[in-house]
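Holo model, fe (ii) ion. Inputs:
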Amino acid sequence: MPAEEDYRDHTTTEFTRYSTEMLAAETVAHVLYTLPKMPWEFQFDAARHLYDEVRHCLMGFEWMRTHRLNPFASPQYLHVYRWRSQFPPVMQYCLLTMENGVNAFPYRHGRVDAHQRAGDALSEQFVRYDIADETQHVRFGKRWLPELLKHVGEKRPLEKYVKDVLKVWESEYRTGKLTVNVE
Ligand SMILES: [Fe+2]
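Output:
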């Protein structure tokens, strides 16, 4: 990823990444499909989450088109989806709502400031939109993870479970050393 000091290139990569968020929508769909006996309220919140991720992808597409870039020329990050989908569905949901949401906020707020300084209102608005949605997704995670752990008979307390999942995220996702153990 280009350095943040290189505003133009960094911003292009930032929005190209948004254009790959179909993978987040797919993960929410996967979780919904594999946990059919959760209450209706969970399905309702997860459906909203799924819809938000589709819009984030669309936001990336629109940004790229506005800047005369072809969104279909940049690949979806299938290796990330493949990595995430090898884990049990509750862990996938935890990865999506806890790690991405919590860890990404300082970066995203920094991007709002950068777009403001550059007078780039469209990019600023898009990132603010994303922050609002991700705030909601973290709320969903906090609301539903305790229920999901009960639902699947997980023995670890919530804090320990989230901490363990975070460790995997830190050592694999953050470093880019994604280990896939299933075909
Ligand atoms: Fe997203």
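The radius of gyration is 17 Å. Helices lie at 7-18, 22-34, 40-66, 78-85, 89-118, 121-151, 158-173.
Archived with the compound record.
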